[in-house]
Specification:
By secondary structure, the protein is an alpha/beta fold. It is built from 4 helices and 7 strands, in the order βαβαββααβββ. The radius of gyration is 14 Å and the shape is globular. It binds adenosine-5'-diphosphate and magnesium ion.
């Protein structure tokens, strides 16, 4: 399944992330590709807030991975969100900081920015989103659902 939308503001991208969050179930892996400034972290803010995580949400570029706990009242099945950013690293380093544990967390979801840098450990079932900068305020978002359920 392939869907494409164009958002015309940061807020609209956040709302798109919130709507997507409502369709996710635990175990989902979301791969976010796109250049710097395309809106990957902004979309993740929408995903996290849609899952019931209270902010602030900071970019994990420098810390590589940020884990958020989700209360059982906020969401039926998802209790943890792992937001990883592979911009500065590759597969070996991502594995060494715990990637496999996040993937095996039955109540977790994993959101990965720069999935192309760790392509060999992104599962085929991942939901792939690619974001493209069109102009100052517009972004094209293409979503492709892998073999997995959403
Ligand atoms: N339609 C839009 N969607 C998302 N971000 C937008 C949009 N229009 C402008 N922006 C701005 O673009 C920047 C996107 O940054 P960020 O989400 O950190 O990108 P990335 O994580 O892909 O590097 C933010 O400063 C945001 O305010
Ligand atoms: Mg980012």
């Amino acid at each position: 399944m392939r869907q494409e939308i164009i958002t015309t503001s940061k807020e609209e991208t956040i709302r798109f992330g919130q709507k997507l969050a409502a369709r996710l179930s635990s175990g989902a892996v979301i791969a976010l590709s796109g250049d710097l400034g395309a809106g990957k972290t902004t979309l993740t803010q929408g995903l996290l807030s849609g899952l019931g995580v209270a902010g602030p949400y900071t970019s994990p570029t420098f810390v590589i991975m940020k884990q958020y706990d989700i209360s059982p009242e906020a969401h039926k099945g998802i209790r943890r969100a792992y937001h990883a950013d592979a911009y500065r690293i590759g597969t070996q380093e991502m594995l060494s900081i715990g990637w496999e544990e996040w993937m095996e967390d039955p109540a977790g979801i994993v959101i990965a920015e720069w999935p192309e840098r760790i392509a060999d450990i992104i599962p085929e079932s991942a939901i792939s989103l690619s974001l493209q900068w069109l102009d100052e305020t517009r972004r094209r978002i293409v979503i492709e659902n892998g073999g997995g359920e959403m």
